[in-house]
Amino acid sequence: MHVFLSHNASDKPTALRLAAQLRLVGTDVWLDDWEVKPGDSIPGKVNEALAVVDTVVVLWSEDAAASRWVGAELDTALARRLAEDDLRVIPIRIDDAELPPLLRPIRWLSLRPDEDLQAIARAIVGLPTSGAFLKAMQRQIDEAGFEFRYFPGYGVVVGCPHCGASVHELEHWSATDDRRDDTYAGVRCTSCRWEDGGEI
C-alpha cells in the first residue's frame, strides 16, 4: 500500500503521528516533511506522488477546508479516481468541518483527540484488531532486521536519538536518591554521552 497523506500545516502533528503508525506496519507513506528535500519543486513532488499512490488520505479540518494546497491535492486525487477507478480516497475528519460534497458519499473516518489513532491506521490498512496490528508490526521489525534493547527508566531503543549510534553503543545506568528513597534508571550513549531516563 502506498499512501499520500494530504493535510494542512496546522494539522501536521496529527499527520506525523498517523504516518508513523502506518509506517510501523510497513505502509509506504508519502508525507511532505519526509519526501520534499531542500531545492525540490513542491508542486512537482506532489504531482509525482499523486500519480503513483494507490490511496490518498485527507485529514479534513477547518484549516484544510480553507487551504488551497489541500484543495488542489484533493481535486487531483478525485480526478484520478474518476478516470482510473483504482485510487482509494479516505477522508478523516479531525474536527467539525463539513466534508465537501464530492467526499460525502465516501466512507469517512473520524479522528478526534479522544479517539484511537491506531484504530484509524488499522482501518486504513485493513487490520481488524489490535493483535493483527501488532503482528504486522512484528513482521516489519523481523524483516527489517532491527536490533533493539529495553532500558528500564527509558524504554525501547534502536539507536541513540542524538547521534544515531547503534544500540551496541548504549549502556544502562541507574542511581538511587537515598533521601527520597527513589531509584532512577535510563540509557546513556557511549559515543556522544547523551542520556535520558526516569524514576523506576
Structure summarized in a few sentences:
The chain is α/β, with parallel strands linked by helices.
What does this structure look like?
- With 200 residues, this protein is α/β, with parallel strands linked by helices.
- It has helices at residues 12-24, 32-35, 42-52, 62-65, 68-84, 117-125, 130-144; strands at residues 2-6, 28-30, 55-60, 88-93, 109-110, 149-151, 155-157, 170-177, 182-189, 195-199.
- A hairpin with a 3-residue loop joins strand 6 (149-151) and strand 7 (155-157).
- Helix 1 packs across helix 6 and helix 3 (42-52) packs parallel to helix 5.
- It is elongated.
- It starts with a strand and ends with a strand.
Map the helices and strands.
Elements: E1 2-6, H1 12-24, E2 28-30, H2 32-35, H3 42-52, E3 55-60, H4 62-65, H5 68-84, E4 88-93, E5 109-110, H6 117-125, H7 130-144, E6 149-151, E7 155-157, E8 170-177, E9 182-189, E10 195-199
Parallel strand pairs: 1-2, 1-3, 3-4, 4-5
Antiparallel strand pairs: 6-7, 8-9, 9-10
Give the structural class: alpha/beta
Number of domains: 2
Helix content: 25-40%
Oligomeric composition of the shown chains: single chain
Low-confidence blocks of residues = none
Question: What gyration radius follows from the Cα positions, in whole Å?
Answer: 21 Å
Mass-distribution shape: elongated
Strand order of the largest sheet: 2-1-3-4-5
Number of helices: 7
State the end-to-end distance: 40 Å
Secondary-structure element pattern, one letter each: EHEHHEHHEEHHEEEEE
Examine the coordinates and then state which fold CATH places here, giving the name of the CATH topology of the largest domain.
Answer: Rossmann fold
Report the major sheet: 5 strands, parallel
- CATH architecture field of the largest domain: 3-Layer(aba) Sandwich
The CATH class of the largest domain turns out to be: Alpha Beta
